[in-house]
Design goal:
mainly alpha; about 0% strand
Length: about 160
C-alpha cells in the first residue's frame, strides 16, 4: 500500500514518536542507574516522569485524530540505544567516562526527538490539527529543556576534568 496523504504521514510520525517514547521509558531508569553523578541521575529520573507524560500526550494526539495509539518501529532510537548498549558492554568505562558518555547518548536521543517533534508539528500545522499541535509542542518543550540540562551537566563534567 502506498502512502499518499499527509495525514497518513502524520499518523506514521506519531507512531514513530510513540514507539521512541515508550522505549525511552524503559531505558531512562538504566541510564540513571549507570550514572555516577547525582545531577545526571536526577536529570534522567526527572525526564522519565516527563517521558511517561509524553506517551500520554501522544495517545491524546492519536485520539484527536480519531486513531488508536500504536507504535511504528523506530530504527533511529533503536540505533541510539544499541550504540549505548555496545559501548557499555565493550568499553567498561570508568565512572567519569560513563557520565560523559551518558550525557552524549542522552543528547543524541534528545536531538532525534526534537527533530521528530518539529517534523510532526509541521505536518499537523499543515493539516490544521490544532489540538495535536498543542500536545506535540508540550512534548517538544520538555525535550528542549532536557537537552539544555544535559548540555549543562556535560559542560560541568568536562570543565571539572580539564587541567588548569
Amino acid at each position: 500500500m502506498s502512502m499518499t496523504e499527509p495525514r497518513e504521514l502524520l499518523i506514521h510520525e506519531l507512531g514513530d514518536l510513540y514507539y521512541a517514547e515508550q522505549l525511552l521509558t524503559k531505558a531512562l531508569p538504566t541510564l540513571a542507574e549507570e550514572a555516577d553523578d547525582s545531577e545526571l541521575q536526577q536529570g534522567f529520573n526527572d525526564h522519565l516522569a516527563e517521558t511517561e507524560q509524553h506517551v500520554k500526550n501522544l495517545e491524546k494526539a492519536f485520539e484527536a485524530l480519531g486513531e488508536t495509539a500504536h507504535g511504528e518501529r523506530c530504527p533511529a532510537i533503536e540505533g541510539i540505544k544499541a550504540e549505548h548498549d555496545k559501548f557499555m558492554a565493550d568499553e567498561d568505562p570508568s565512572p567519569d567516562i560513563c557520565n560523559a558518555f551518558l550525557t552524549g547518548a542522552g543528547s543524541r536521543a534528545e536531538h532525534y526527538e526534537i527533530a521528530a517533534y518539529n517534523g510532526a508539528i509541521t505536518l499537523a500545522n499543515g493539516l490544521g490539527e490544532d489540538d495535536v499541535i498543542e500536545l506535540l509542542k508540550k512534548n517538544l518543550a520538555d525535550e528542549q529543556k532536557a537537552l539544555e540540562k544535559l548540555e549543562t551537566v556535560a559542560e560541568r563534567l568536562a570543565s571539572a576534568k580539564t587541567p588548569a
